[in-house]
Structure formats: C-alpha cells, structure tokens
Amino acid sequence: MPVEPAIHPTATPDSTQSEPSTGLLSPQFIDPISSPLTLKPEMNVEGATVSELASHANDTRDIVLPNQTEHVSQIAIDIGGSLAKIVYFTSSNDIKGGRLHFKKFETEKIDECLDFIAELVEDAKHINNRNEQVVKATGGGAYLFQDKIAKRLPGITIQKEDEMECLINGLNFFITEIPYEVFTYSETNPMQFEERTQDLYPYMLVNIGSGVSILKVTGPDEFSRISGTSLGGGTLWGLLSLLTGAQSFDALGPFTEMLDLSQNGDNRNVDLLVGDIYGSDYSKLGLKSTRIASSFGKVFKKGVRQSQDAFHAEDISKSLLFMVSNNIGQIAYLVAQQHGLRRIYFGGCYIRAGNNLSGHPVTMNTLSYAINFWSKGEMKALFLRHEGHLGATGAFLKHKPIRRARHSFSYSENFTPQIITGNPSNVYGVLEQTKLELRSKE
Ligand SMILES: Nc1ncnc2c1ncn2[C@@H]1O[C@H](COP(=O)(O)OP(=O)(O)O)[C@@H](O)[C@H]1O
Ligand SMILES: CC(C)(COP(=O)(O)O)[C@@H](O)C(=O)NCCC(=O)O
C-alpha cells in the first residue's frame, strides 16, 4: 500500500484555492493557516457532559459546558461530500454555562445549511452588538462552495482550515476533555466507556465519510495520512439507493429508511457463505460455515441472471452494510498492523454512533469484530458519540473567541451509566433515548 508523505500543520496552503477579500460587504476567505494541533480549548470545559437534549432523532447530542460562563460567538462548518456538519456555542440566560450544538445537513441541501448559519450569524450580531463575525470552514465544500457561501453570508470572514488537521484536533478534544464520549462496542457491552486520557499517542483514525481517510497520529503536531479507500459511506449510500429504491439515510430523512431496512434483513439470502460452498466449516483454514465467502455471491447463480425483484431490499441493505464495513475493518487492521498501531478510532457519520435514536450497532459490531478477530485482541476499535463532528469541532476550536451573548437551555438530572442493568443489548438504546444527562463522576 503506498504511504503518502506526512502532512504537517506547517505545510503551505494551496494558494490557488484562495480568494482575496473583495470589500466590506463581501466575505473574506482566508486559507488554512498553520496553527498548532491539539489546541487546548480556550473554553472552560470543566464539568462538561453529553446532554440529553437533541431536538429530534437525527440530531447529535449537545455538550453542556456548565463552567463556560462567557459567551463565545463561534460557528464552524465542515462541508463534506455527503453531509455538512455545524458546531456552534450558545450560552444560557438564566443558568451558568452554555452548550455546544452539533447539526448536520445533506450537502445537496447546502442552501438550507447556509440559511441556518445566516440565522446564527444574525443572532450573534444582535447579541454581541457588533458586525464582525468569523466562520471557520473545513472539508472540500469550504472550497467548492466558496462563491455560494460568499453570496449567502455577506460581510462574514470565512477562515478555511485544513480538513485532516481539524479531524485530529476535534478527536483529541473529545478524547482528552469529554467524559462518556469514547467507547468500545461489543454485543455483550455495546457502550463500554473509556476513561478520558492525556496519554493518547500513537493512534490511528479511520474517518469514514463519503470516502475513507486513514491517519496515523504520533504527537500533538505530528500526523500523516497513511491510507484511504474510496469504498466508504458514499458507496453504501449510493448502492443502497440504487439497489433498494430507498431515497435517503434517515427515518426523518431517507438514510435511516435504508438503514432501518437493513435491521430487518437477512444477508444470507444474498451473500454466499462458506457453508454454501463447503456444506460445512472449512476448519483447516479456520473459516466457519456462517462466514461470508462472497458478498452478493448468491445473486448470480449458475449463470442465471436474477431480477432485482428476486431479492428483498432488507436483505440487500444488510449485505451492503456488511460488505462495506467488513472491507473497511480489514483495511484498518492491515494498515494498523503495518504501522504498529493498536488504538484505532473510527470517526465519520457512516458510524452513526451518536445518532439519537438510530445509531448503528451492526456497523460498530462489524468493525469491532474485524479488528478484534484479525488482531487476535491486540488492537482496540474505539468509537465516539460525536463521531460525525470531529472536523467541525476541530475547526470550531481554532476560533479565537469573540465573547458575549446568550441563548437558553435547561439542565436535567444527572445520570450514571453503571446503573443500567438488564439485557446489555438494551444499553445502547437506553443511553441514546433516555431523557437524562451523562455527567462525569469527578
Ligand atoms: N442522515 C444521513 N444522510 C446521509 N448520509 C448519512 C446520514 N447519516 C449517515 N450517513 C452516512 O455518512 C456518510 C457521510 O459521512 P460524513 O462523515 O458526513 O462524510 P462527508 O464529510 O464526506 O460528508 C454518508 O455517505 C452516509 O454513508
Ligand atoms: C477525499 C476525502 C479526503 C474527502 O473527505 P470526505 O468528504 O469523504 O470526508 C475522502 O473522501 C478520501 O480520503 N477518499 C479516499 C481517497 C483514497 O484514498 O483513495
């Protein structure tokens, strides 16, 4: 596998992408500037908790910052090939502290997303009583939609930030600062939280967005993109819509419709298993009869062309999900092994760990299983509840805060994960659906 050269934060930005400031009412676009990674947040994150408040099922939960008493009018956006993610802060009128909010829009609906940001900017202007506003932008769309952003957000300074730097910056923030954020997944214990740690290097990040980027991170200012694959979230989304007729990813939008399908599916109707070929386990090679020998291998049977209607959308969805996740899991293992890395963080909206109601256990299970199986338990697959917002959070943290303003929110009860009893497979759902707030024991 070719190893690409290290990208250092000090790398000179591509000046062909930059656009000069065009006057008072035009936004300024400022290209990525070199800045240290792993910024210690300028915000007070002491006592930070993951909140119960998500306005609807497709939202990622807020992070409550009870000790961030000063308002910071910060907005950051990460515009990817599939989704645009936004992170912003609001402070409370009546209660001490504030919240980090995490939103996402389909990149196709970039206009809606920019309308949302325009409202945030307007709000911030009123509260701050000042016109100056900076929006941090990362991801390919920060370049692709430069003109559109300029038109929709006149007078705003858009500071572009490097996507990979932001991913790591955001991930480091979640690992080091946010309790009950990082977890391992297993069928018996679907959300086993990791302790926050300052001892995080080296690690590998597998960011599963539209495509997959694999980064090796060895220190606060040291990382390189060691691999990637085009078989990622966009592949799943595209093939799902092509083969199942479902239109989107979510129950509230079309992607969950597709993923929900997969939950009732049986991939054995589509995939060819070892047992279908051998009639039993292939014990000599350690291959169980239930192992997928060939994804979609049952579709083309003995030279007979099958019609698409011969297969259920549910089964096709499950098979696709296994196919993409297994492939990423195996590539991740091989790359980690090649580089001697044992801690593997999986990020990107593909994982859907932090989705309020419909996080996807099958994906996490498949990735965890692959890493565990191939590494014989030597490596650890780690997930995050804000998996899709690593880049936007990293960009957000690069703000030099402009202070003062407010919005309102309410607190609710505290919650200790250890109190969950009963069927462990319910824990995941309980955590995501409960109207309680996770709070660190400290
Ligand atoms: N609501 C959703 N709509 C579309 N895709 C979703 C949704 N939730 C999860 N996904 C998956 O996440 C992928 C995008 O992940 P993301 O990290 O946002 O990547 P990108 O930065 O390339 O947009 C999609 O290709 C799809 O597989
Ligand atoms: C080009 C990208 C970095 C863009 O990031 P994304 O919007 O997919 O999150 C990513 O899609 C990618 O790394 N694709 C795989 C390219 C490859 O290594 O073959």
Strand content: 15-25%
Number of strands: 19
Low-confidence stretches: 1-27, 33-40, 402-442
Strand order of the largest sheet: 1-8-7-4-5-6-3-2
CATH superfamily of the largest domain: ATPase, nucleotide binding domain
What Rg do the Cα atoms give? 22 Å
User: What is the CATH class of the largest domain?
Assistant: Alpha Beta
Structural class: alpha/beta
Instruction: Using the coordinates shown, work out and report the CATH topology of the largest domain.
Output: Nucleotidyltransferase, domain 5
Which word captures the global form? Answer: globular
The CATH architecture classification of the largest domain is 2-Layer Sandwich
Count helical runs. 11
Folded structure, characterized:
The structure is a single chain. By secondary structure, this protein is of the alpha/beta class. The chain folds into two domains: about 15-175 and about 395-440, no CATH class; about 180-390, 2-Layer Sandwich (Nucleotidyltransferase, domain 5). The protein contains eleven helices and 19 strands. The chain has helices spanning about 110-130, 140-145, 145-150, 165-175, 235-245, 255-265, 275-280, 315-340, 360-375, 390-395, 425-435, and strands at about 30, 50, 60-65, 75-80, 85-90, 100-105, 135-140, 155-160, 180-185, 190-195, 205-210, 210-220, 220-230, 270-275, 290-295, 345, 380-385, 415, 435-440. Helix 4 (about 165-175) packs across helix 10 (about 390-395). The longest helix has 27 residues, at about 315-340. The protein starts with about 25 loop residues before the first strand and ends with a strand. About 45% of the residues are buried. The structure holds adenosine-5'-diphosphate (ADP) and the ligand CC(C)(COP(=O)(O)O)[C@@H](O)C(=O)NCCC(=O)O.
